[in-house]
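Students often ask why we bother encoding 3D structure as a string. The short answer is that it lets us treat folding as translation between two languages. Here is a chain of 203 residues written in the first language.
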Amino acid sequence: MQAFTTLEAVAAPIDIVNCDTDQIIPARFLRKDFEDPDYPSYFMHDLRFDEAGAERPDFILNQPAYRDARIIVADENWGCGSSREGAVVALLAYGVRCVIAPSFGDIHYNNGMKNGMLPVRLPAADCEALRAQLHESPGAEIAVDLAAQTVTGPDGTTYGFDIGAFDKHCMLNGLDDISLTFEYREAFDAYESCRKQETPWLF
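And here it is in the second language, the structure alphabet:
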């Protein structure tokens, strides 16, 4: 997966409490291949588009200042609901690398960590303050520094956040589960070589 170190980008406020994974990507798109070039359009599809496929102009991500948002500041319980990995894939396909929220659905949080989308927990009051700034200044940027574990808002206020040491290490170095396993490749090769000598009849 792509490593996450720092990101300074346009942020979009999404004021939806309990925004579940079916809102992030509707279930009917889950059979689509993750490499589907249309995957970016599946992100929050039914909130972004009407039944005819036309954009809903009042939805935040369809407004010009927020179209290029790479950070989302959300409300309580972002990514609750089903465990679909496609919700994180849709976020990344759209271009979002970080979601800041007071709380997350547990599985969605872990799916983000395993795919290079950084979920940042900040207190509800801090998230509310950030969203207010983003509404007041459309197109404003937020800076996220994973090594320092800080978020800097449009007004320059810096907020600290907690993250597990293991998750931080993996995210900074772009290590998913497969990459972590490959770190032990030399030990695996040595074991297999030894086994071939000790029990050649098994090979």
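Translate back mentally: The chain has one domain: 6-174. Keep this in mind for the problem set.
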